[in-house]
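Q: Hand in one record:
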Amino acid sequence: MLVYALATVVFLAGLISLGWDGYRTSLKIKGGTSLEAEKDPTKPGYEAQVKPIPTHLLILTNDKGAATDAVVIAEGNAGKGGSVVVVPGVTVVARPEGNMNLSAFIAAKGVNEGITEIQRILTFAVNDSTTVTPKQWGELLSPLGSLTVANPSPLVRATAPGQKEVVYAAGDVALTPANIGDYVTFVSDGEAEINRADRVQAVFEAWLAALATKPAGVPTVAPFAAASGDRPVDVSALVTGLSQAAVAMRQLPTTAVPLPSANGTRVYLPDVEAIATMVPTVNPFPTSAFPGQRARTRILNGTTDSTAATRAAAPVVLAGGEITVLGNASKFGIATTTVVYHDPSMKDAAAKIGTALGVTATASPSQTEAYDVTVTLGSDFKG
């Protein structure tokens, strides 16, 4: 199986594709000051607003319209390559009224609530979302014609008591526009549903590998209707872009927990620590899906090392930060790294960022609504 390996490459590509806008703090923002004076990124006082990486959510549905699994796509540099994360439909959604898996949650609460929960689990926002039906899978594959995927074990369907038929044999399976949608949503009789997410990942890997060698096979269908809001998702363009450069392909980390007296049945809880570790390699500049999900962080370089601010980005994101501004401190030659929070409610969030950078966060004497935390890097920063 071809896996597009990526680690720091994705992160560095994200830095290259920042698409920084000249940062101009609005005078209407409480406590904000104009930062228009310095436009040279090599000089003290320069700050730039980070442009978030476009991120998209595909919710896969079966022929009955029920949600199965989900796929998150983060675009790469200039829309080429990027990251793909398969979110298993069996991932547990924890709610006060009771836990249920993601597929069941969407069936009970609706797609909009499901999108909110996926963003909560991922710990970052998506820009837009859509559903992908089996028919639409066929339309996407149509220009390529067919796709061969290595199927690890037979997929069977019960036909009568004690009788089963093999729907997809083990070994190489030729997927066509007529059956690809069924394959990515199929669950074999008696099979653990988590395996379905493995097949979704395998299909994406094989698809992107095939498109890389056969560009004429890229999909050309019209954008799919939005699952939430009014912004259609151009899945054809996303898949085309992914096929043009390296892609990090992975499944959302979960922890399998056996249920007592349930004949080996397991539930799959989101692995919070592993997800936090994954995020910087998937989406180097995540944004919050709702207020307070991530601490809006301004990183200023107070050293003569021009790469310090960008190198600090990964540990800040890992600690739960949303990097909104990168730039330079008011002077270079600062010896000690500092982390300050501008609102008392962000004390704990700032403490996590401080710990990630090896310092103790403190309260700032100034308040602003432009960001929650300011990191100023000194020469003691070795990240």
